[in-house]
Amino acid sequence: MGRDQIQCAFKQEDSSNFYLDGGKQPIVLTNASLVNSTFLWCDSPSLLNKQGYAIDAENAWFDVYVTLDAGSELSESNGRFEYYSDPTIVELSPALGPYHGGTTVTVNGTGFDQNTTCGIVVRLGIIELKPTHVTNETLVFKTPKSPLPGTATFSVALNGQQFTKQQVASDLEKELTFDFYDVPYTSYYYPIRGPSNGANFQRFQGFGYMLKRPHLNDRLWVRLV
Hints:
Helices cover 0% and strands 37% of the residues. It is mostly beta strands. It starts with 6 loop residues before the first strand and ends in an 18-residue tail after the last strand.
């Protein structure tokens, strides 16, 4: 086969609902990577206009055909490809937990459960996992074990492969991070007795109390049982 002969053809009979590159294009061809006689890869076309905005992305779709001759002839059968809008992540609650994992985290935002989403995956750093519960405004997942304490970026993919991105890589948004910490340890505290009316100042000595991340230093609580 010659170069750029095997392609995917994204076609819509009625293209009046949206525009590509400022004009109606009922057929869009994209290059395909042939893996074997029964499998190939191809990229879906972008719906963004010249200003970088997508119009009515949630209702956009294409019928997808395969062509072996750069679009002269299309396959008789086709599949349907549908678009969704990128979700918005507002915050993680809680935004920290011990590095041995097991923390149940709720992600608040919008657009998680759209009609066209499939294979929802969340990512902490480089670790990917499935959420345990999904609504349009929330995702719930349980943190895995982390090899070391530290800050992990959070992202979500509604199709199992294309994840949301941090706006600035050098200055992580605190709403889009999860902090793994080493469980604090107390070696000594005093006094061990006090009056029944309370208000007794106690001193604890140990390690692991400060997280060295300013936006999380207000999360330290002490429980007396």
